[in-house]
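INTERNAL AUDIT FORM
Audit reference: QA-55
Scope: verify that the stored structure record matches its stored sequence.
Auditor: D.O.
Record contents follow.
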Amino acid sequence: MKILWLCNLILPRAGEQLGIEGIPKEGWVEGLLHAMEPLLGGHDIAVAFPVSEEYDGKRGTFKISDESEVSVSYFCFYEDTVHPENMDPLLVSRMNRILDEFRPDVIHIFGTEFPHARAMASAVCEDDFHYHPGSGRLFVTFQGICSAIAADYMACLPDSVVSSATFRDTVKKDSIKQQQEKFRARAVNELEAVKLAGHIGGRTSFDRKWGKRFSPDAVYHHAGEIMRPLFYEPLPEEIKRDMNTIFVSGADYPLKGFHILLTAVKDLNWPELKIRVAGQDIVTKKTLKDKVKISEYGRYLGSLIKEYGLEDKVTFLGRIGAAEMREEYLKCGMYICPSSVENSPNSIVEASLCMAPVIAAKVGGIPDIIRDKKECLLYECNARKPMEEVAANLRKCIEAVLLDPESALQRSALARERMLKDNDPRAVSSEIMAVYSEMCKED
């Protein structure tokens, strides 16, 4: 087989070759590639990914061979990933060039969030490439689902915040309402991509439901995910957890629900509380530049932090890699995922592999990947309910962990067992290779 992967971000290994600093969000795709290497004997694999205009001159094809002795071809193409709501018609011709050069038997699109997914699906189904809509050669696996994100994007935000905009939002045409509209535009591209696929992969009843809605005749496959290799390493013999520390993996837009978490902890008598956030600090406005760049959501979070007296308790860590994330999971008292919608967040899997007690909103596919009261605590979250009501549900879970940390640690031990089984690299890679083989047999 000749297998082509289309990814949303540059893989670390390719980034090193190109001199492009990678983003530590797509490490799990490289983890899958590493796990599949023993199965790739006699097969050719290529990975395509977008690059920004800054690196447009580095577009092209190159191969990397390392100690695994598996040669991987990489294709990079220009895409305006800063404005993923815009569909560039030229993307289809860029995808066609990749198809013409590599001539794959199977095309696997990882995620539906960017226009290149629609462009590749359209290119695959053009007559001159001998494919057709609903092609058996096209396999799309879900990551985030733009249609669901658009529906629940506001995540209990007050109307006064939703209808406001800062200078930065006005100039960039990126108010909270406009952000939601952008996801609605992305959802159109998502629908067009998925309905052309003959095969869809996912991990939850949530993405199965959306897959059936988008493409009723497509074959749905269970397609697991592999975490970054570091998270499968043995845990330290002694883990010193600070039960006063909450770790969160993102807070940069409303969907992530950080405002709900802040509201949940405001009434707790918890002087030792520390909230550590992986990701961009969007609340700081110490300098004139900070004030000009701040978004309405960042301004709102900053006002909540000040109102609730949390200035010395919230720390933004910036973008951190796998090693730093693992360290945060290992030392926190609880990992909280307060998002208003998720499919199968890798952060929950990573936290569980590190035996961090997990609290998460009972939304999307989360109940399918981790069991409430047995492996974690889930709370009711409806993005259209008043924020105080949802925050109160989260507060009860936090209090339960604080009152009974032993039970929380017992749940986390069971969660680690579950994640090692469900995300086993050998099993997942074999599962996906079996899908590819099945697709080729259809012809």
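Auditor finding: record pair retrieved intact. The chain has two domains: 2-163+176-226+423-441, 230-422.
Action required: none
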